[in-house]
Amino acid sequence: MKRIEILPRNNWQKEVEKIGFGFHTTNVPYWFESAYYSFSMDEIDKLETATNDLWLMCLDAVQYVIDQHLYHRFSIPEFYVHLIELSWEKDHPSIYGRFDLCYRDGQIKLLEFNADTPTSLFEASIVQWYWLQDFHPSMDQFNSIHEALIGTWSYLHPYLNKGKLYFSCAKRNLEDLTTTEYLRDCAMQAGIETDFIFIDDLGVRDNAVFVDNHANKINNIFKLYPYEFMFHEDFGKNLYSTTLWIEPSWKAILSNKAILPILWELFPHHPYLLPAYFDSPGTMTNYVKKPLLSREGANITIVENNKIIEHNRGNYGAEGYVYQGLFKLPNFDGNHAVIGSWVVGQEAVGIGIRESNGLISNDGSRFVPHLITSFAQ
Amino acid sequence: MKKSKFIKLVLITGALASCAKKENKEWEYGANNYHVRTDTSAAYTTIHNRHWFYAFRPYGYFLYGRYHTVGYWSSGIHENSNTGRSATKSAIARGGFGRATTVSS
User: Fold this and answer.
1) Hey, where are the domains in chain A?
2) H-type alpha helices, A69-210
3) Taking CB atoms and an 8 Å limit, are A225 and B10 in contact across chains?
């Protein structure tokens, strides 16, 4: 894995806007093509294997949490336990998820799993692919995300309830809207009839029937809106309706940082895992303190030799914390890279890389494209 | 081979990119207040114009193959201004999800 500095395309902003990428720059650059990461095929194969293995381990972990009734560790309200178990037993479909991995010194370590509402999907699937066509079209990229999404929607189509599949996200966020509309685009190409409604506009009638803006019943809905919010909002109690929700509610287990100590308990000293514990760091002197439900790196503290070396502020942590062994991100001249490895339809299908100035990835991180070189590095 | 051969997008192109344009600051921070309601049976309530609210949406139901309009609705205004005395509208609750404005992760 190498970081190579290059000149960006002339008018790259226009190039990415042409394909629907409108949030390439905020107050700091988000899409960053003045560099790229190169991988050998051997490295990509290792990432692919790790992602597939981690996915299977996560499925085992869900079953374990259900069997042992460990929901209190996840701060999941008792009211929703049956909902989660129903969705698991009925095998309600999942479309995607993103593992955040650290790849350093030949080792791959799981940092966390964005299993419920992962974003940066459009950037990984579309934007970096178009970049490669302009920059070096003969080179390869670990990226079959687009075909996998269409193929998975096509596979899931017969398992949906009759009627449209709605797509939904919160208002006022272009990143969320782009991710949601991109997923909808793929579903349409899979032959599914779709519609869109903002999550704020969802209606409920007769106590538990979700309806759209025209009072039509919603039978299937993809939501880019996390269960940890839904469980505590007014309509949460209506989730026991016949509406099929994607992602399914069993993903509330995997998207929670409490899954990290559970995985360590189930697979101690597994090469892809870092030691992780509830309640305290134990004997670790180098560790990362993570809230169960933090987003965008908020409220994360990095401790080295029992001293805080980095901390992000935020509003999370009320539900509790986990403590995970410290495995620092690789440092490329001050750029710390985390690999987002995508699972679509139960398989590893591609990666996207975000880099930060610090060790904690946050909402100021940059998305940097990648390619595969054919030789070992 | 890990790379896609061909990518087609049918839905999102320039439409989403154009959403990135910043809103009119004058509209966002102006001093005027508005009083609005979604139909004549609903009460007026104040909208401070620094609040973002979406256009009213037509609201109704299909019956005997025809769409019957019963009014309009917006998540940007007070519930009292949405429902009024319309029985159909008041039978549907809205705004029960979406307190958070961003979920990116």
Assistant:
1) 2-256+330-373, 275-325
2) 81-89, 121-122, 128-135, 145-156, 174-189
3) no
